[in-house]
Write a structure and sequence with these properties.
single chain; alpha/beta; 5-stranded parallel sheet; 9 strands; globular
């Protein structure tokens, strides 16, 4: 059966560790795996703009011996003249894998249901699982626990919009790794109840936990990692979400919150708006690993592609 990666929990806890271990190996030896030699082609479809996702997948596919076929909005019949299912049936006969950055999670699920080639979620409105692989790899590199998967038992606190794709993926991926997740967000911007229920059920297996709080200080206290994201997600209207009147202004990452933490790593998936969700002093300071995090998109996605093609 073809393995797809549509959300963070599509990898079991032990499988997540395998992918992270492989990512570390490929970072140390970038051309040691060539599962796409031929070269085989990977379709990389963008319904949304991208910098890190576009560059990391194109570069990573080439490093694995393959050829990336970048398909931008309006350059295919997908979603216009042709159904997702029919597109999947065509692509599976021509490419080794399908990477899709899109809006609805349901589209990815439909693509995967009709494709014998692995389908990878490069971002949807609900989840951003490739980003989380890179984030977990980065945390292991800088705050490895020295036991097990190197992540279990660590505490990560996320601040801002708790109802967006990043918050959902942090809840699921962090608990999947056995971490303690704290999501600090204002009322009305909490994670989807279904996502929280899934994370809480998974926590009984991994020993992790998930907490949602409206108090940013509670989330920051003693945390090993502090994370935030833009207040206005891709495709959203501003609608009063930015500026000092924003409901997220109290959740801005700054040195005062960082002082409550356990000398925490500071992370942001980028692009960042300094002075909005995070201060320049913090994102450009000595605790920031933001650009290691960005680089690790390349290594984590190479590992993911390799793993999926082998299973």
């Amino acid at each position: 059966m073809t393995r797809h990666f549509l959300k963070d929990t599509d990898l079991a806890p032990a499988e997540l560790t395998e992918v992270l271990d492989l990512a570390a190996e490929l970072k140390a030896a970038p051309y040691s795996a060539r599962p796409l030699a031929g070269p085989q082609t990977v379709a990389v479809i963008f319904d949304k703009t991208s910098t890190r996702t576009r560059v990391s997948f194109a570069t990573g596919i080439a490093a694995l011996g393959g050829s990336p076929l970048i398909i931008n909005p309006g350059e295919s019949q997908l979603g216009h003249k042709e159904s997702v299912a029919d597109t999947a049936r065509v692509l599976e006969r021509m490419v080794a894998a399908i990477v899709w950055r899109t809006f609805a999670q349901s589209g990815l699920e439909e693509m995967a249901a009709h494709s014998s080639a692995p389908v990878i979620n490069a971002l949807s409105d609900d989840y951003h699982p490739c980003q989380l692989l890179a984030d977990l790899l980065t945390i292991r590199e800088h705050r490895h626990t020295g036991t097990g998967n190197g992540l279990s038992g660590l505490t990560l606190a996320y601040f801002g919009d708790g109802a967006n794709n990043m918050a959902h993926s942090y809840a699921l991926a962090g608990v999947n790794a056995g971490m303690h997740m704290r999501i600090a967000a204002p009322a009305g911007s909490h994670p989807d109840p279904g996502v929280l229920a899934e994370a809480q059920e998974l926590a009984t297996v991994t020993g992790g936990s998930v907490l949602v709080t409206e108090d940013p200080r509670e989330a920051a206290t003693g945390a090993d990692v502090l994370v935030t994201d833009t207040w206005v997600s891709m495709g959203q209207d501003d609608e009063g979400r930015s500026g000092e009147e924003s409901p997220f202004a109290a959740y801005r990452l700054d040195t005062a919150l960082h002082a409550l933490s356990n000398e925490a790593l500071v992370m942001h998936c980028l692009p960042a708006y300094r002075g909005q969700e995070i201060t320049a002093e913090l994102i450009d300071g000595p605790h920031s690993v933001v650009f290691d995090e960005a680089e690790n998109r390349l290594h984590a996605q190479k590992a993911l592609l390799t793993w999926l093609l082998e299973h």
